[in-house]
Each structure stands twice: as C-alpha cells, then as structure tokens.
Design goal:
Number of helices: 5
Shape: globular
Order of helices and strands: HEEHEEEHEEEEHH
Strand order of the largest sheet: 3-4-5-9-8-7-6
Length: 177
C-alpha cells in the first residue's frame, strides 16, 4: 500500500469528493435528462391537454399506456421506460359512498386537503367526484383518482390534474349516457 503524505491528504479527499459529485450528477437524471416521447393528450380515453399531464411525467425515451379493469372500474397506467409514472382510475361506487370514504381508502393518501367537497388532494394523489347525469351503472356515483407514481408534484399540480380529469369524465359518455 503506498504511503500517503500528510500534506497530500486534503488534495486526495477533495478529488474523491469531486469524483463522487460527478457520478451523482450523472446518475440522478440531472438537467441533461430529457423527455424524448410525446406527452399523451388523453388518460384512460378521456381527453386532457398534454400540458395537464406533463408535470406528472418524468424524463425518458418511451411512453406506453396500459388500460385494465372490469365494468364500472377503469384503471389506466402511463408507463415511461418500463416504470409506472401515472395511474388513473375511474370507478363507479354505491350511492352512499362519500368522497372522503374513497380518498381515505386510497393507498398512500396522507396529508390531504379537501376542496369544496369535490376533490381530496395530496402532494402525489388526488380523488375527485364526477357529476354524472346518466352514469354507466344506474344509481351509482362516479369517482376519479390520479396518482403521480414517479414523485411528489405538489398539491397545486394535483388539484389542476384532478379537476381537469374529473371535469372531462363528467362531460364524457361515461356520465352523459
């Protein structure tokens, strides 16, 4: 093992720290990371401006959409480079179901804020109550949920996303018959 001279130690430590910072900068998806895919203009077949979804989506090369669920329940996942980035759900529930009941039964909802009885919002998830004149299932209520799986995006962003998504679901054929 080579002998380290005492006066060279600070230089060696500084070099190791600089090397560590360089590696951390490369692996964190720093400022050079870009979104190489087109942001979709819909979520679960519900039209949304791409600008609404954009803050929820990470940098990456490829995006795909996976839709699933039985009648009365539609789950859609936006997957970026093989990792789930956004999950949305449109769900029919019994008429006595409350917005708070849906929100608090949603995995990971914590530190929430309720907005005018129509939305419950956290930094990475939001639940909404759609206004349906003619729901797909008679005498059922329609609820929406959006989760940013990649990171916390903030309550203001989630409020914008859930309000636009819920309004679009309310105006869709799911609610208009």
């Amino acid at each position: 093992m080579p002998r380290i001279r005492p006066h060279a130690l600070p230089i060696r430590i500084a070099g190791l720290v600089a090397a560590g910072l360089a590696v951390a900068g490369c692996s964190s998806g720093g400022p050079e990371a870009k979104r190489e895919y087109a942001v979709p203009a819909s979520l679960c077949g519900v039209a949304l401006p791409a600008s609404t979804l954009e803050p929820l989506l990470p940098a990456g090369k490829k995006i795909s959409s996976v839709k699933s669920g039985p009648s009365g329940f539609t789950r859609c996942r936006l997957v970026v480079d093989g990792r789930i980035a956004v999950t949305s759900i449109i769900e029919q529930r019994a008429p006595e179901t409350t917005l708070s009941g849906v929100a608090y039964s949603t995995y990971g909802m914590s530190d929430t804020v309720e907005r005018e009885g129509k939305y419950v919002i956290s930094d990475a998830q939001a639940v909404g109550h759609a206004s349906c004149d003619k729901p797909q299932k008679a005498d059922h209520e329609t609820f929406t949920m959006v989760r940013a799986d990649a990171e916390d995006v903030g309550k203001a962003t989630m409020e914008k996303v859930i309000s636009k998504f819920t309004d679009a679901v309310s105006a869709s054929k799911r609610c208009a018959g």
